Amino acid sequence: MLFFFILVGVQIIFESFPISSSGHLILLENILNYFQQSNYISLSNDLIIEHFFHVPTALVVALFFFDRWAFLLFHIRRCWNIILKLMFFSLVADFITFLFFILFKKVIDRSFLPLGLGFLISIILLFSLRFCNKKTYSKLTLGKVIVIGIAQGISLLPGISRFGLTFVTACWIGISPIKAFEFSFAIEWPLIVARFLEGLISFKKMPLFLQTNILSFNLLSTIIVSTIIAFFALCFVKKLILQNRLWIFSIFLCFSFFSWLFFICFF
Q: Which of 48, 73, 57 is nearest to 21 (CA)?
C-alpha cells in the first residue's frame, strides 16, 4: 500500500510541473512493479482512480489563481466581455483537445510513441525556452488559441508534458510568459474538473470495500500533504517563469529519460 501512496503523491505533485505527471507515473509504476515482481501497483492504468485524484489539482489551480477569477467575478459587470472571451477561447482549445482524444482513442494508438521519446520531446521543448527571449508580446487571438489547442491535443501522447507544451508553444507565438502560464492552466482546469466528475461517478459505483480503501485516513493524509506541496510547487514554477528559467526542468527530464532508457535496456 505504501507504493500506492507514493504514486498518488507523484500524480498530485507533478501536475504542478512541466514534466508530464502521467509519464512519470507510468515509469514509476513499471519500476516498482518490476522490483515487487507483481502487477498490482497501478494508477495510470486505472482511469477511475486516476481521474478521482484530479480533484487536488483542480483545488490547487483554483486557489493559486484565486485573485484572478475572484476579481473577474466581483467585477462581472465591467469584466463580462473578458470572461466571455476567456470562456470562448478555453472552449475552443479544449474542443480541439477533445478531437485529438477521439483521434487517439478511435484511430491512432497512443502507444506508438515510446514514453522515452515523449520525455525527449519535452526536454527539447523546455530547453528551447532559453532561446525564446522576445522583447515584445502580442495579444491572445483565436488563431493562437487554435495553435495552443493543437499543442494541448498533442500532449495526450505519453511522456509529453501538457503544461510544458502549451506554455512553450504560447511563448514562441508571442504570448508573454506570465499570460502563457495563466492561459495554460485556464484551459486545463475544465479538463481536470471533467476528469474528476467522471472518476467521482465511477467511484460511487465501486464496491463499498474499495471506497473504504480509497478514503482511508492514511490515503487522505497523503492527498492533503501532496496538495499542499503541489500548491507551493506551483508558486516555485511561477517564480522560475518570472526569471525566465523554466527551462531548467529540461535537466530534470534528462534524468527521467535516461532512467527509462536504463530500465528498457537492462530490465
A: 57
